[in-house]
Design brief:
Two copies of one chain form a homodimer. Chain A is an alpha/beta fold. Chain A has two domains: 19-191 and 302-392, Rossmann fold (3-Layer(aba) Sandwich), CATH 3.40.50; 192-298, Rna Polymerase Sigma Factor, Chain: A (Orthogonal Bundle). Chain A is 35% helix and 15% strand. Chain A is built from ten helices and 14 strands. In chain A, strand 13 (318-324), helix 9 (332-344) and strand 14 (349-354) form a beta-alpha-beta unit. In chain A, helix 3 packs antiparallel against helix 4 (225-239), helix 3 (194-208) packs antiparallel against helix 7 (286-298) and helix 4 crosses helix 6. The first copy, chain A, is globular, with a radius of gyration of 21 Å. The termini of chain A are far apart.
């Protein structure tokens, strides 16, 4: 093993645990945009760093479609993989745990501990399945806000996320303007395009038409793994760039010298995708995939100039919008659209575009300039935060 | 009805029939690149225009993945749709039936009349299914050449096609250099990229994992329609441009005023895709989809400079290479790669890029500049052809 997280790898938050908290168990309910209510609601979350005395140094990291609460560190000393954003969260990393208290919670509707379609419906004692109510990104943020209330954290230094995580962080600034000082959107979009919806729709069809789907009630028997794997494989192509795929695989054959002249995998890219699909189904719930993709499809906070102006009016957060040149799922023009909307409504916004061969996934991966820019932005936030604290003292 | 094809719509070839011919029924066999042989082999084809006295005015139109022999005109007077390239084939159209004798045949491995996996295997009296041998684009061209021999057509004025049709037309120039005077490749590529193969691989997985697939033996019972529909829906997204989808559908809802907050189709683009999938499965064979996508994956005539130089050495055809700016399945850089290879090997090549919102499908659709350029190129071919004829006389 190259390093031992327990004895300390530089920059690692080390061993962490996912905590579970049950909210809305006191007679209150979580009221959703669709009108339905949920109670109780369990939330899985992790924190890194130390909350300061006046509880004012919290940063909320919002995860994307298939993310989890486990954003940094290790769950066990012999874990081979760290949390999904470990390159960016830790001591002296951009989201510096020497300065900030980082929170990451599994989204509502998820399958990593937070209440979702695979959770037990208290009304029936069985998993919700498709009886789980339809959720929106607004609902996810409403639950995150309830978690912050539970943790007694009145304000966030920043809400930050990539892809759908960026959409959630925007939703934060819109729904709780008084509670977010900064908002970071990376490789994100103000809404899904027809092409984005189309890919989501085919992914859902793959799940819905799997014979094991069984109307969503597949927790006791065979799961719709083939459909979910297809959904993931297709989506995965859209997370990578053409260039990245070419550099990584090209037309290289997999474990063979010559073409098979059969229907096994010939090319390395085929085996890679199949591996992506089969490892995904081990950790992810098909119903969650349906709910979260639909929530993404529905996200559209700026449908017209009047609504946009009204929604942005109370917003005081400063925005950092970042994109990657080879991202074609949410390409840079989508980020620029967010910037245009914010500028037009006289919000404070910085935009940066980075070069990377990694497409949509770039926000998760090492990229020096991107890392430096995030670090600089959060250092500035920290300086402002310290200045305010000394003024107050 | 807007027009009657029988009484004559201007520019229409009118009523046509698909002809069937059985080749390799005389003791000869079609020997394939994989080493297997087929005999007999049926070919479905259509012709438009008149073959001139010295049998020298033939143009071969090669169809793409899901095309058919029915490239122009109507099969019945009340047909609502013409052949797939009717905008470009007919009197005074780019492939002018007043000047040329146009031939289009269903590709080997197809499901529109030519021998393919759904055909009866003479050895067993049952459909081939996956016992059909693996085929290549070279094999498809070899069968087209046998058809031309049968029709007693020694040389082609041009082989022409879009997408895989362009790859076939390139294969013609390479395999039968003495028989092709010109070669037209539209929205094509010298080889599939890792991303192209990835999309094909997921499409095949969708078919192979359909429970009705039954190892390819699905001709007697339920067909793997869900898998094939998924494959088509996904591929269809790649045929259209992001911009085209946006202009056509945007985030418009389908037959509803508000979001459903359920898993039916909300957006028009979802319904459109589902329609594409369900109409495709009525006319297409899942096994053919497997064979043809694999043949595309395998196509790679220029794997290295030495092979390229050797293969291009005897080629005398002049090339016309065309692309469309919003095509992202085979984007213009892929066409330019063909041009670079041809230039480097001192072949006569013209390249043109057109603007269109229609992505990969643009080659099938009306586009004035593209049409004019094709017309000009074929007028020049006709002029040269007439000059040669009068010299010979």
């Amino acid at each position: 093993m190259a390093s031992n997280p327990v004895t300390g790898q530089p920059g690692s938050v080390g061993l962490v645990t996912t905590r579970l908290v049950e909210l809305f168990n006191d007679g209150q309910t979580l009221t959703l945009d669709c009108g339905a209510t949920l109670a109780p609601v369990r939330v899985a979350y992790e924190t890194y760093g130390t909350l300061d005395a006046d509880r004012s140094n919290a940063v909320l990291v919002c995860h994307a479609l298939s993310g989890t609460a486990h954003a940094a560190g290790y769950h066990q000393a012999d874990d081979r993989r760290q949390g999904w954003w470990d390159d960016y969260i830790g001591p002296n990393k951009p989201f510096d745990t020497n300065k900030f208290f980082i929170i990451c919670s599994n989204n509502l509707g998820g399958c990593d501990g937070t209440t979702g379609p695979s959770s037990i419906d208290p009304a029936t004692g069985k998993p919700f399945g498709l009886r789980f109510p339809m959720i929106t990104l607004g609902d996810m943020v409403r639950l995150q806000k309830a978690l912050l209330d539970h943790l007694n954290i009145p304000r966030l230094v920043a809400a930050v996320g990539g892809s759908m995580g960026g959409m959630l962080s925007l939703q934060w600034a819109l729904d709780y303007p008084e509670r977010v000082k900064a908002c970071v959107l990376i490789g994100s979009t103000p809404r899904l395009s027809a092409q984005n919806i189309a890919f989501n729709a085919v992914a859902r069809q793959a799940i819905l038409s799997d014979p094991n789907f069984n109307g969503g009630d597949h927790y006791d028997g065979e799961r719709p793994e083939k459909g979910l794997a297809l959904a993931r494989m297709m989506a995965h192509i859209t997370y990578l760039s053409e260039q990245g795929l070419h550099e990584k695989f090209g037309r290289r054959l997999q474990d063979r010298e010559e073409l098979s002249f059969g229907f096994e995998n010939d090319f390395a890219v085929e085996s890679y995708l199949q591996h992506q699909g089969s490892s995904f189904v081990k950790r992810f719930d098909a119903n969650t995939y349906l709910y979260i993709t639909k929530a993404m499809d529905y996200f559209d906070p700026f449908p017209d100039p009047e609504t946009t102006a009204r929604r942005l009016k109370p917003v005081t957060a400063r925005f950092l919008v970042m994109s990657f040149d080879t991202d074609w799922r949410f390409d840079p023009s989508r980020s620029k659209e967010i910037v245009r909307i914010l500028n037009w409504n006289r919000k404070q916004v910085t935009y940066q575009e980075f070069s990377s061969p990694h497409g949509h996934d770039a926000f998760l991966l090492e990229a020096p300039q991107y890392k430096e820019s995030l670090t600089a932005f959060f250092n500035r936030l920290h300086k402002d935060h310290c200045a305010r604290a000394s003024q107050a003292a």
